[in-house]
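**User:** My hope is that you can spare some time for a protein that puzzles me. As I understand it, each token names a local backbone shape. I would be glad if you read both lines and explained how they fit together. The protein I mean follows directly.
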Amino acid sequence: MSENGPDIQGNETEALRIVPDVGERVHDGVLREFTDPGGSLYRAESPRAAIDRFVAQRGGDLKTGGVDLREVDSAEGIGTLRVRYRQFHNDLPVIGATLQAVASLRTASVVKVSNGADQDLTGAPAPDLARPLDDLRDTVLAPFGADFDSVEILDSQLAYLRDAGRPTLPEADYPTASVALLSYGTAPDGAVHLVHDVKVQTGGPFEVFRVVVDAVSGTVLFVELLGKYVTANLQAFMPDPVSESDDGTLSGGSSAATLDAFRHAVQAEVDAAANGTFRLRGDWFNCNDWDSPTFAQPAEASANFNYQTFPADRRFLSANAYFWLDGFARYLRTFNNSTLNANMVRVDVDAQGFSGADNSQWQGAVTPPRIRFGEGGAPDASDVGVIVHEYVHGVFDFLGSEHGGSGSYEHSFCDAVPAIYRDRFNVNQHRRTETFPFDNYADSLVMPNSA
């Protein structure tokens, strides 16, 4: 790994190591990842200029000199500018081949570059070899057989694809798609194919699929389910009322009118509607009322889980817990720890559990594993520190890392990790060294418990 780079400002010559994996990742002589969260190297008069300068100066390392990269979108977020380039070949898009650069708005410096361009498209078929999609219609629709009452092609694009992988298969049939259907196709061969990338809609049951068919040979490469996930809108704390405001008088006893001001519009992935109803259920978590007291979990006709805070609407606790748990689990998976990723399973979550006590618990001895959050004091599902603390117990289980059963050792990690993770979202940087700023509210006479 290389950490050095040009000193545009004449100051730093090495990326500041403030998080893991700072520096550069090179594979087969190509710079694939550049990470400099401190923004110490590639600075310019503006964020856009910093990105343009990086792409120009590091083109040799990125191996983009002979690659047709075109900017397809740019967007400003909270503190960053993101610019995405898509690769084309013979004026056709190359599926999955992109270069994305991120620059800090505050320092006008490049902080992240991800290079997914395909530097060698030798042997890619010429566009005029593609058979018309109309000629391949029966082939595209063949995988759906008699499983659906109707099937039709919605749209398609002619493109190039490096056939290097397949969508992940579920462990069991979905209500609208069997494992057999999603297994349809051929094994990846690593070659560059000219393909029709087709969107197919079914009826009885309704679903939307992607079918990728070789436009030259007419062979279906794979079928992918597009309708499995839905982007849901939620209201959640960001990260919690005390960290956001630095007001230690806020507590679980504050009114909903007071706490509502600390809700933020967020998004998370949930499963598609079942029988017309959306629930807080996705790949890794399922809000399920399994522990006392009895409380019906959110169920909506649209993927919107926007509620007043407690005590006005206790459903807010489910939405808040789901948002933080799902985001944290997906973040952990980006570290590509093979043991963790292979052993993670969906967890049942009861945000109004533990008989209302001021306690929370991870329970890994059942299938599926469960988390229950009590509502005593400040409800534990309202504090991201407690929420993530309980899931880190699960991470220990997934990793098989009990370390001789040392509860204090494990709990220290379960406290430290959420404090670190929360800091990523603590825009105002209040209460950075506190583990549970909201749950440990000032007027509490009893410290919150966690198991």
About this structure: Residues 1-11, 442-450 have pLDDT under 50 and may be disordered. The chain has three domains: 23-115, 127-226, 230-423. Residues 23-115 form a domain with the Nuclear Transport Factor 2; Chain: A, fold (CATH 3.10.450). The longest strand covers residues 92-104.
